[in-house]
Amino acid sequence: MTESPTQPAGPKPTEPTPADSGPVAEALEAHAAADTAITDFGIDTTSRTTYEAIGDYWNRLRGGELGAVPALLGLTVLVVIFAIASGDFVSINNLANLLQQGAGPMIIAMGIVPVLLLGEIDLSAGTASGVAATLLALHFRDHGNLLGAMGDSMFYGFVVGLVLAALLAALLRLWIGVVGSLGAVAVLLLGVPANPYLEMLLAILVGVGIGCFTGFLVAKVGIPSFVVTLGLFIAWYGVILQLIGAAGTVSVRQSDVLFNVANDSLSVVGSWILFVVACGGYAAVVGLRHAARLRKGLVAQPTPLVLAKIVGVVVLGAVATWLLTLNRSPNPALTDISGVPYVVPIVLVLFVVGTFVLDRTRYGRHIYAVGGNTEAARRAGVNVPKIRMSVFIICSAVAAIGAIVYTSKVGSVDGNAGNGNTLLFAVGAAVIGGTSLFGGKGRVRDAVLGGLVLATVQNGLNLLGFQAAPVNIITGLVLLLAASVDALSRRRAAAR
């Protein structure tokens, strides 16, 4: 005869009622689970003091997470050196010119950042931007008659190539690539009369088509990106030579819109409106996000640090806007040159959009995931080939925007468009700013900071009378130093 199991001490469980097993019970259980999670992971609701936050940041720096600190320190040192060496460097006219000169490579660098985040490289971004600029200039010069400007073989070759690019994008369901490539085909075939806005759109659409072709070869065919883009770098350079010729030049100075993109400025009123929108938007986003985290009990930066960041950005923005709205003309009695250059809002828009996409969207998280560990991302359900192809589309499209700015600054397109140092400075800007060549680490701001560093080096050395050779040597050494800092910081982080 067996004894029944001994019942544990305490009250007996009650029979479930309809309310216990319905929506009310489920809600109570979910609430209890949330409370348990908060208890188990207390760090999610732990607030830090200002001193603790600064200490934590210092520990991350010591651990090799340098971020943009080297670029900021380097930029500060360069500005001080050139300001001491040449009084012209800190003139308002030169500072505005520095922004206009550096905007083209800076924008191309912003497009290269997503590619570098995957541990890939796009060596063809420079000449791809040159191809986009060439079609823009030919469309303007020949009043939309690209068939006559390009010749039969090149024209129909481009049409077939862009249709193929659309098909390749469709295979991976990248509809932006399909729309962009077919849009370029439509502009080519319709022969729409010259229009500066249409020509800028054409350049971007051609960039999208080029990116589809590059990305498919890397993502689906499996050819290493270095090999693909090196081959396309040479091929696109040949296309430019075929369309323009080694000694040829196509001017766009006759178009006020095209020429003013990188050579004109907002009005004084427009400049202050830009300040209010940019700095006010930054303050609103950062402040509201901080308030929301505090309200939900999530870990957040100390409020004094958040306020200090907002005040710092607003003050710097106000000072920069005020300086740029002063008359910086070499002959103030004859002409008035004032206002924030047009390239500044262009860079700001790309910066905000790129930062939002990488930091606040699922697509951006997938890019970081693939760059950090491709196999883990694939097992988590990320469509790795689609992500890899998409970043090359972004790179080429943004490079085309950089080509528009660069073409506007120079006022023409020649046979070396996008060749030479264009790509090297763009990649260098991203790396100098803090984007890792090993993948998984970097932000769009890195391209902006690195672009400012390179523009400062070139501008300052030119003011001091240095020729091309020492400028290239020093720029190369700066890039080498940045790559060394990246490698050493990664080694230090791994050792910890």
Automatic annotation (TrEMBL):
Domain of life: Bacteria
Listed transmembrane segments: 66-86, 98-118, 146-167, 200-219, 226-245, 265-285, 306-325, 337-358, 387-408, 420-440, 471-489
Region (Disordered): 1-22
Keyword Transmembrane: yes
UniProt GO molecular function: transmembrane transporter activity
Compartments (UniProt record): Cell membrane
Pfam families from the UniProt entry: BPD_transp_2
InterPro entries documented for this protein: ABC_transp_permease
Name of the molecule in the record: Xylose transport system permease protein XylH
